[in-house]
Specification:
MetI-like fold, 78% helix, flat, mainly alpha
């Protein structure tokens, strides 16, 4: 028995070399892919710290040999640009309420579709699934006319309502499927103890569904923050978000690289902060979905 253990524990020199290079190749490939995807972001960040003259004469990579090019003047000028700063707050006013309302309404509806019995539940779920396949472009003109009749076209409210309408089908479908994985015995035990549906939802479903809810919040926030199509149509100069403001700056001042680069990096850094802040819950949701 001991001889067998010794034989199994031994590795030939060739096997050790193959194992080392095998692991090394995978690690090298992952590092290469990560660097490849980070290069544009790093280049944008460095460009936002360079002057217009440096950006026009040399590439951003030259900063590694001449770090004196770096300056924060672009961000100082950006904060004095009322169009950019106003659009930044407009983006927050659009993304945050939209994300909160989609998550809250989606969680309530997801719990209802998963564990409550009411007439027409299955047919309503079919309608929700069908709405997932409806493209945004189909509703642009009808909703623009409806918002115009209501007197809210061109306002932040119109963009919020649009994103809520198109975010809810995915939110309901995602959370309903996740909530159905909660053991029925757990809910029955809570009902035997006298808990109401609202109490079960708050004290049982929400804590267990935290990873899925956080994942939904990440996706919804990113979609809303980075949207330009809906905002380009439904907002005006006073309610436009950051994506539309940067696009208008590009159209008006094509060589205004200092404002464009710093504004674009500002638009990108906020979603990154949100993602990394909630990535732990995102990974938990992925792992929970991989378990039976």
């Amino acid at each position: 028995m001991s001889d067998l253990t010794i034989v199994r524990g031994k590795q030939t020199a060739a096997q050790k070399i193959l194992a080392f290079f095998g692991k090394g190749f995978v690690n090298f490939l992952l590092v290469f892919v990560a660097i490849f995807w980070l290069v544009p972001s790093v280049g944008l960040f460095i460009s936002s710290l360079r002057t217009v003259g440096d950006s026009a004469s040399t590439g951003w990579w030259t900063v590694f040999t001449t770090p004196a090019q770096l300056t924060v003047d672009n961000y100082v000028n950006l904060l004095s640009n009322t169009a950019i700063t106003g659009s930044f707050w407009n983006t927050i006013m659009i993304a945050v309420p939209t994300t909160v309302l989609v998550v809250v309404i989606g969680a309530l509806a997801g719990y209802a579709f998963a564990w409550l019995q009411f007439p027409g539940r299955d047919w309503l779920l079919i309608v929700v699934i069908v709405l997932l396949a409806v493209p945004i472009q189909v509703a642009l003109i009808p909703l623009a006319r409806m918002f115009g009749a209501l007197g809210i076209f061109g306002s932040v409210l119109s963009v919020i309502l649009f994103h809520i309408a198109f975010g809810l089908p995915f939110a309901i479908f995602l959370l309903r499927n996740f909530f159905m994985q909660v053991p029925a015995e757990l809910l029955e035990a809570a009902r035997i103890d006298g808990a109401s549906d609202w109490r079960i939802f708050v004290q049982v479903i929400l804590p267990l569904g935290g990873p899925a809810i956080a994942s939904l919040a990440i996706f919804q926030f990113l979609w809303t923050w980075n949207d330009m199509l809906v905002a380009l149509i439904f907002t005006n100069s006073g309610s436009q978000p950051l994506t539309v403001a940067i696009q208008s700056q590009l159209r008006q001042f094509g060589s205004n690289i200092d404002v464009l680069s710093s504004g674009a990096f500002l638009s990108m850094i906020v979603p990154l902060i949100v993602f990394f802040a909630f990535q732990r819950y995102f990974v938990q949701a992925l792992l929970a979905g991989s378990q039976k």
